[in-house]
Specification:
This protein is of the alpha+beta class. The chain contains 9 helices and 15 strands. Strand 9 and strand 10 form a beta hairpin. Helix 2 crosses helix 5. It is globular, with a radius of gyration of 20 Å.
C-alpha cells in the first residue's frame, strides 16, 4: 500500500524560540498539529522549505555516486575494525531477505574523530578536496536542521524549549554522522524469484534521522497495526524519522517506527541511492524522560539508560527488536 507521509512546511514554524515560550503562542498552527500527530502515529514525516540549498543536495548525490563507482578494492581500503565506520560491502540474505546495501559510514567525533578525512585519505591517497568539502558542508547543514527539528518536537510536546534544548543532555552530549547507502539492482541466484531484495527491518536507535533519497522509492514503514506501507518519494523534501532515544525521552509520547527498503526487481532498472544523517547522543549521555511527561495517565515507561548501553543491547538483541526494549520498566 502506497502512502503520502505528512508534509511539514518549516517556513510556517518558528526558527527560534524565546525564553519560556508557551504552546499557546502557536495555538491553531496547523503545521505544529501535523508535526505532533506525525510523531505520535507514524514517527515519520517529510519536511519541505528546510533551508538546505538544492545545489548542495545535488552535489552530495553526485559525490556519493562517484564514491560508490570506485573499484571494489579501493573502497575496501576504507573498511574499519569498529562497527558502523567506513565501508561496508553489500550483503545478500536468503531469498533476498535481510539484505544490506553497500554503504559508507562517516562516524561522529565521539566515535572516530575526523572520520571524513581518514576515510577520504584511504580512498584517495592524493586527495579529493571537492568530496571532503561537499560532505563536510552537507553534514554541517544536517546538524543545523536536526537542531531546529528537535526544538520543534520539544515544543510540540508542550515543553520549555529553552530549558531542555540548553540542558547538558542536548548541549554537551550530541553527535551526528552521515551514512551513504547504495542499493544495487542486480539479479542473484539467492534472491527471490521476482528479483527483489529486502533490507533488514529495524528501528534507528538515535534521536532522529534525516534522509535524502532519490526518486526510485522502496522505503517502507511498519504501522502501529503491523502492516507495511510504501513511502512515495517527494522532490525537494527530506524524510525525517524518530529514533529509539526520542521514544524513550518522550516517555513513549512519540514513536520510533520499524522500517526497511525493498529494492531491485525486474521492473526497476536503476540502482537506489540514499544519504542518511543520524542525530544521536554520545555514548555517555543518560536518557531520562522529563518529569513533565510523566503522570498517572502516562506513567514512567523506561529506566534511565546511557546511550552506550542502548547500543550494546541493540547489537545483542538485533535491529528488529531495538536496543531500547531492554530498558522498559
Amino acid at each position: 500500500m502506497a502512502s503520502d507521509l505528512p508534509v511539514i512546511d518549516l517556513s510556517l514554524l518558528p526558527s527560534t524560540f524565546a525564553e519560556k515560550q508557551n504552546l499557546s503562542d502557536l495555538e491553531g498552527n496547523n503545521e505544529l498539529k501535523k508535526l505532533r500527530e506525525a510523531c505520535q502515529e507514524l514517527g515519520f514525516f517529510h519536511v519541505v522549505n528546510h533551508g538546505v540549498d538544492k545545489a548542495l543536495i545535488e552535489k552530495m548525490d553526485c559525490a556519493s555516486r562517484d564514491m560508490f563507482s570506485l573499484p571494489e578494492e579501493v573502497k575496501k581500503r576504507a573498511i574499519f575494525p569498529i562497527p558502523s565506520a567506513g565501508y561496508s560491502p553489500p550483503t545478500l540474505g536468503a531469498d533476498g531477505k535481510d539484505s544490506m546495501p553497500e554503504s559508507m559510514h562517516f562516524p561522529g567525533q565521539s566515535v572516530l574523530p575526523n572520520s571524513l578525512d581518514q576515510i577520504c585519505t584511504k580512498l584517495w591517497p592524493h586527495g579529493n578536496h571537492q568530496f571532503r568539502e561537499i560532505a563536510h558542508t552537507y553534514n554541517s547543514h544536517m546538524m543545523s536542521l536536526s537542531q531546529r527539528i528537535i526544538q520543534l518536537i520539544m515544543f510540540g510536546l508542550g515543553l520549555d524549549v529553552s530549558k531542555y534544548y540548553k540542558s547538558d543532555l542536548f548541549s554537551s552530549f550530541i553527535d551526528g554522522y552521515v551514512r551513504m547507502n547504495y542499493y544495487l539492482n542486480r539479479k542473484d541466484e539467492k534472491e527471490s524469484q521476482n528479483g527483489y531484495k529486502t533490507s533488514m527491518a529495524h528501528t534507528d536507535i538515535g534521536i532522529l534521522t534525516i534522509l535524502y533519497q532519490d526518486d526510485i522509492g522502496g522505503l517502507q514503514i511498519r504501522t502501529k497495526e503491523g502492516s507495511w506501507i510504501n513511502v512515495k518519494p517527494m522532490k525537494k523534501s527530506f524524510v525525517v524519522n524518530l529514533g529509539d532515544c526520542l521514544q524513550m525521552w518522550s516517555n513513549c509520547r512519540y514513536r520510533s517506527a520499524e522500517h526497511r527498503v525493498v529494492y531491485g526487481g525486474l521492473k526497476q532498472k536503476q540502482d537506489r541511492l540514499s544519504v542518511a544523517f543520524f542525530y544521536i547522543f554520545e555514548e555517555k549521555a543518560e536518557i531520562k524522560a522529563p518529569e513533565e511527561l510523566i503522570n498517572e495517565e502516562n506513567p514512567k515507561k523506561y529506566n534511565v539508560a546511557k546511550f552506550g548501553d542502548i547500543i550494546e543491547r541493540y547489537v545483542q538483541l538485533g535491529p528488529k527488536l531495538g536496543g531500547s526494549n531492554y530498558f522498559l520498566i
